[in-house]
Amino acid sequence: MILFKIKPCATLLPVFFALGIFTLTATAQTRILRMVTYNLGADINGITAPQPGLIAPPGDPNNYAAGGVLEGIGEELLNGNAQPIDILALQETTSNPATVSPIANALNAFYGGPRLFTNSTYQATESGNFAASGNGPNAIVFNTRTVQLLASVPVDPPGGTSQLGSTSGEYREVMRYQFAPAGVATNGANTFYIYVSHFKSGTGTTNEGYRNGEAQIIRNNAATLSATARILYVGDFNTGVAAEAMYVTLTTAGSNPALDPVNPTGNTNLVWDSNSVLDVKTFSPTAIHYRDDYQMMTTNVYFGTAGGLKFISGTYHVFGNNGSIAYLGNVTAAGNTALSNKLATNGPVFIAAAQLFLDLTNASDHLPVVADFTIPLPAPRISNFSFSGNNLTLAVTNGVTNAVYNVLMSTDLTTGLTNWTSVATNIATGGNFIFTATNVVSSAAARRFYLLTVK
């Protein structure tokens, strides 16, 4: 008897073959997506390119094969899973050519995949339509193997970009990006949106009013989307006070409200800019004391309403800060355990925790916020199989274009999956494809079990 199973991520799809009888059962599969928001500080005091430590070590800033903070995020184990960044939302860039494209190119150099990472071609702007001041425009970088960018939509105040600034409260053009899983047909269920924002900084009622003006613009725009839209609201919000008007505007009931994973009940009495609740603080790596950076989301994402993007509970965190360093402390402090026993090689080299802490202090004056999500994919089916000598050929339908498929083999069905042997690898050229595993069939073996896995 030969037993096949399809294993997408952690979901098993059994397919049984016995004495020429073919039966198939299949369930939905999912893909894990790693989302990051990061204020780069790349448009302050003349800085325009990615700063040392972001994509290469500070002491060797052109050695992209050695990696930096962004590649280190791909090493981090969340619920036992380490994977490269899928979507990177950026604030304080200078421009796509100066800051953003070099990041995508460096990620490609590290992971060895030309055009694996790219960025939206839309060039966002800011107050005065001048992209080289005011701490720079928002942008996005993404992994084309895992997601496809459907749209890049500027969210401007009424009257357009001429109204950016004190008139509206929106100083840097908010961007709304629409994504879907790569390699599959898009539909209303598998698409999702990301609003990338950088709210006005500063204390006092005037600046709070500016931030609330931008929040109202975002909520008004989100209200034009479907009531079931899956939305992330991310960026540098420049507040650590839940009672501030902009926070309340984003999270209040209505069409597509935001939910803060750190405060899912919406308690407006919380303050994160004090010397407590250290693990949520993102500013700054050398003197941690403010919570500025957020990943909020609609309730259907947070609570995992079936059928679309779903937040993986327990994965939201500040990279490099788990609260083990003191208030106003440096992430390089000896007692920082944020990355202890939480890193796995996921590229050409392993970047140690000590190096990543050093990278963080050079790459930006903020720390990145990271979270993992799942997105549903169509369940592939084996429509036919055949043998030719020692080779096994599978005809697969409903697959994921450009996804990497593996055939694993074991002589014992009870063996843990980590001990199954990889016997073939293939990249799907389309939704329907033929997969031949060579020299995997043996008449001398009493039985062998095979799994078709997709990354």
The termini sit apart by 26 Å
In CATH, the architecture of the largest domain is: 4-Layer Sandwich
Rg from alpha-carbon coordinates? 23 Å
Structural class category: alpha+beta
Mean pLDDT: 89
Present the secondary structure layout.
Layout: E1 2-8, E2 13-18, E3 21-24, E4 29-39, H1 69-73, E5 87-91, H2 96-111, E6 117-119, E7 139-143, E8 147-155, E9 174-181, E10 192-198, H3 205-222, E11 231-236, H4 245-251, E12 293-297, H5 299-302, E13 310-311, E14 317-318, H6 353-363, E15 369-377, E16 381-388, E17 391-397, E18 404-410, E19 421-427, E20 433-437, E21 448-454
Parallel strand pairs: 1-21, 4-5, 10-11
Antiparallel strand pairs: 1-2, 2-3, 4-15, 5-7, 6-7, 8-9, 9-10, 11-12, 13-15, 14-15, 16-17, 17-20, 18-19, 18-21
Helix pairs in contact: 3-4
